[in-house]
Sequence to fold (167 residues):
Amino acid sequence: MKVQLSEYNPHWEQQYAFEQNEIGKALGDSAIRIEHIGSTSIKGLKAKPIIDILVGVRSLDEVPSFIDALSKIDYEYVPKLQFKDRRFFRKGLWGQGTIHLHICEYNGNEWAEKLLFRDYLRSHPQAANEYAVLKNQLASKYQFDRSTYTKEKEPFIQMILQKAKML
Fold:
């Protein structure tokens, strides 16, 4: 899977709003809150053109009951053993997904960190610029290694989370 960054696209917000509505209808009251996360949620930031959506639920034990409802709106459940505190669904052609859906416990650690990182970058343009530079460097270096690209961003993400937690 090639790492290819795109310039910020204001249509990403519209895509998110459409998906948020569809997911909300599919999950009903089980979805406590739905949030746009990831680089496409940061205005002006280059990103892989994949909309990341976070859904907060009471318990991850509920997720198996969501699989059928989400499949009706074209989401595929992808078991990922490395994700202990969230469950993952995708939409779009394999290897060319357009939406990544992450379900975790509302107000749990995974929920809090995803929103903390997003909100910090939204309110600190300098940090968002540093992240953009890093992403460009990594996308160039690991163009054909998406896994390493993602892994190499982790120290920066952890640094931002530490800063955000000190506010």
Observations:
- The two ends are 37 Å apart (CA to CA).
- Helices lie at 11-27, 67-71, 109-123, 125-141, 146-165.
